[in-house]
Amino acid sequence: MSGKSKGQGGRAPSPDPDVCVVGSGVAGALTAHSLAKRGHEVVILEAGRRFDPSNRTAQMEEAIRPEGSFRDVWEMGGERDRYTSSGDVYYGLNNTRVKAVGGTTLHWLGITPRLHEKDFEMQSRYGLASDWPISYDDLRPFYARAERELGVAGGDDNPFAPPREADYPMPAFPPSYSDTLFAEACDALDITMHSVPQARNSELYDGRSPCVGFSTCIPVCPSGAKYSADVHVVKAEGEGARVIDRAPVQRLEHDSKGERVEAAVYATPDGERHRQTASRFVLACGAVEIPRLLLLSKSDQYPDGLANSSGVVGKYFMDQPIVSIVGELERPTAQEPIGYHTSETHQFYDHEDSRPGSIKFVFDNENPVHLSKTALRGGDNGTRGDLTDVLTGDSWGDETLEKMRDRTPNRRVSMFANPELLPREENAVTLDTSTTDDHGNPVPDVSFNLGPHAIETMERAREIQYRILEEMDATVVAESDLASPKIASHKTGTTRMGTDPSESVVDPTLRTHDLRNLYIASGSAFVTAGAMNPTLTIAALALKAAGHIHEELS
C-alpha cells in the first residue's frame, strides 16, 4: 500500500501507483472508489473528456432540438469512435455508448435488476451454454452493496425476483396511468405486473435530488436524480484518486516473462505518449474496448493478444434483441410521459424447460415525438437505434406525411421485451485491420448473430405481446422486425469468467489467468447474460474485484 495520491496535475503518468484503472464507467468508478477509500493510490485513465454536470440543462436543450442527437451531446463519432459490423444483424455500436468520465451511464435508462439464480446455472439446469464459476449466492452481498452505492429505488411486489437480503435503498416509483391500462388486461390473462428497480432517486439520496420529471433520461438527466458513474469518480478523487481524461490507452506492455503487466501506454491530445506503470491494472472499459485493447497488445509471448492463451478473447459477445410493439386504443391514454418505465413482468423469466429462453417484459410509458420533430427527422433511421424508431425517423416524403396525419399519440400504448440470447462463439469482437481510428489502430468489428434459441424466444415474446394487446382491444400499429431487431446495447461476454484457463480469460476473482496483476472488472466477464439489464451485475463484479485486489495489496 503506497498511500493516497498527491493529485499530480497535467497528463503525465503518476509515479507507480498501486492500481491503474482503464475506464471510468460504472465498473471503473466503483473499483477506483472502493480501492481509494481503503487507502490505495489509484489512477484512472479515461479515453474521453470530463463533462461539467452544471452544463447538463444546456445539453438537454441541445438534445431535444429537432436536429439534436445524443452523439452530438456526448461528442461521439468521428475517427476516434470508428467501428465495423459483420454478422447477420447490424450492430450499431455507437447508438448508445459514451466515451467520457462516467462512461455510458451518462446516457442510460437506469434500470437495475439482478440476474436470477438460473442465469448462473444454464448448463447444469438446461444443458445450455456454460455455468458461471460463481453462484448467485456468491454475488448476493455485492448486489446489495451495488444497490446502496448507486441508489436503487425498488419494491417488494415482484414475486419472481431472486432472494434478497434487505429492502431497496429507496421506495419504488408508482405505476403510471398507462400501466393501469395494461394491468386490466394482464389481470385477465393471469399475468403479474410489478415495479421496476432503477438507479433513479425516488427521494433525496446521497445528496442528489429526487426525480423531477424532465422526461429526458436518455440522453441527459439534468437534475442528477438518475445515477451516473461520474458520481463515484468524484468520490474516488475525494479519497485521493487521480483521473487523467482524454488519455486513450493504446496498448498494455508486460514484463520479459509475460507474467505481469508493466505499463499502460496512453496517448494525449498534444500527441504525446506516456507509460503508466502500476502494481495492479484493472480493465474496466467495456465488452468491446477491453478485447480490442488485449488484441492490440499482442507480443511474442502472446501472438494472439494479451491474456489470450485460451483463444477466447473477444468471443462469446452477447447482447439482447428488442421485441417491441405499439397498440392504439379507442380511448385516450391521457399520459404524461416521464422518460422511463415503471412496470415490468418477470413472470416469463424462470422456466422448467430449456426452451424458449427467459423473457423480460417492459410496459413502456409511451413518449411520443412531436409532429414537427417527426417531419424534421424524416428518414434518419439512426435517431436512437432502438424501439422508438418504429414510430419516428424511418420514412421519407409521403410516407412520413401519412404517419403524421394518422398519429394520435394520446391513444397509444407500447411494450417491449428483452429475450435471452445464448453465448455463441461466432458472436465476437475482432480487429478490422482495413479501418483505423484517429491513432492508426485497427477498429473493433462486432459480429452479431441471433441463433435459434434467441429467435424462438423472440417469437414467444411477440405471441405474448399480441395476447395482451388483444385483451386491451388495441389495434397493432407498429411492431419491430424479428429478423432484424434493434439491440438493447447490453454488451457482455468477450473475456468470460471460468476456472479452466483453456476456456476462459478471468478466474472467479476477476484476475486474468495469464497475468498475475491484470484484472477485468466489466460485463465482458459474463458467462451468460440472461434477459436482464446488466449494469447492476457489472457493478457487483467491480466491487468483488476491488475486494480481491485490496486483499492482495494489504
Automatic annotation (TrEMBL):
Keywords: FAD, Flavoprotein, Oxidoreductase
Transmembrane segments: none
Cofactor(s) the protein needs: FAD
Classification via Pfam families: DAO (PF01266), GMC_oxred_C (PF05199), GMC_oxred_N (PF00732)
Limits of the Glucose-methanol-choline oxidoreductase N-terminal domain: 99-320
Membrane in keyword set: no
Residue ranges constituting the Glucose-methanol-choline oxidoreductase C-terminal domain according to the UniProt record: 423-542
Keyword Nucleotide-binding: no
Domain FAD dependent oxidoreductase: residue ranges: 18-51
Family per similarity comment: Belongs to the GMC oxidoreductase family.
The name this protein goes by in its record: GMC family oxidoreductase
